[in-house]
Each structure stands twice: as structure tokens, then as C-alpha cells.
Amino acid sequence: MMTQGEMEAAVCDGISRFEHEYMGRGPKEVQCYLIGDLVLVRLKGVLTAAEKHLVQTVAPERGRDLLKDVRTQLIEIARPALETLIETITGSKTSSLHHDISTIFGEEVILFSLRSRPEFRQASVIQKRYAQ
Fold it and tell me: For 29-66, what is each residue's pLDDT tens digit?
């Protein structure tokens, strides 16, 4: 059984790998937070050069909407793989998935709602000190 930190790190690794393989490039930074029965994943630096160009050259609202629509569709198509990834790591099935992306900051957020709280072991005193 993993600790909460190990579980969060595994989600970061899995989502980063997914982004690289599925979207063509990985994020510059990934953070994961387990909060009760929620898994919050925050990805920074996710926009490709083409996406940045699209947002900057097309009318601001139109470029933003196009990018958000495409990213949302890609996430929905990949939803089964993402849900399997989260279930494998947390041991809990997902209830829902929510997604948004900022075209200004290049930040993406994925929120998984789980059917139950994931179980993890407590970090040892040595691990806690090392994390500080």
C-alpha cells in the first residue's frame, strides 16, 4: 500500500506520460492533490507552439473557444484510459471527471471525483522529516 505522497507522485507520473504520448508533449510541471474522495491534477506549461499561435492570432474569444473545445474533446475521448489510470493508482473507481484549461497561462486542471476515499498508509517519521 502506498503513502498519500507516493500515490500523488504516481498520478503525476501517469498523467505526465499520458500527456506526452496522447497530446504530443508533456507539461512543464504537474502537481497532484488527494483531497478526500477527489484527485486534483494541475498541469503547467501544457500549450503547444501551435496552440499558442492559434490563441494569439485568431480573435481572442474564437481562438480560446477553439482550443478549449479541442482539448475537452481529446480528454473525453481519452476518458476511459484516464479513469483506468486513476483507479489503478488509488484503488477507487471514478464517479466523474472535470477539465478546464487556461489559454492565457497555459495551465490545465483535471479533477476526478472518486466513488470512495483512497486508502493509503501513513508515512513513517523518517519520510515525514525527509519531505520537510
Answer: 999 999 999 999 999 999 988 888 888 887 878 988 99
Angle at 25 between CA 23 and CA 26, to 5 degrees: 105
Q: How many whole angstroms separate alpha carbon 97 and alpha carbon 23?
A: 18
Of 99, 95, 122, 121, which Cα lies nearest the Cα of 109? 99
Alpha helical stretches, state H, 1-124: 4-18, 49-57, 60-90
Q: How far apart are CA 98 and CA 104, in angstroms?
A: 19
Dig out the grid coordinates for 93 from the structure.
473507481
From the centroid of its chain, how far is CA 58? 27
In the numeric block, which cell numbers belong to residue 51?
A: 496552440
What nine digits make up the cell of 94? 471514478
Nearest to 108 by CA among 13, 40, 49: 40
SS3 assignment, position 6: helix
- What local confidence, expressed as pLDDT, does residue 127 receive? 56
What are the tens digits of pLDDT across the range 76-121? 999 999 999 999 999 999 999 999 999 989 999 999 999 999 998 9
Answering whether pTM is above 0.85, one says yes
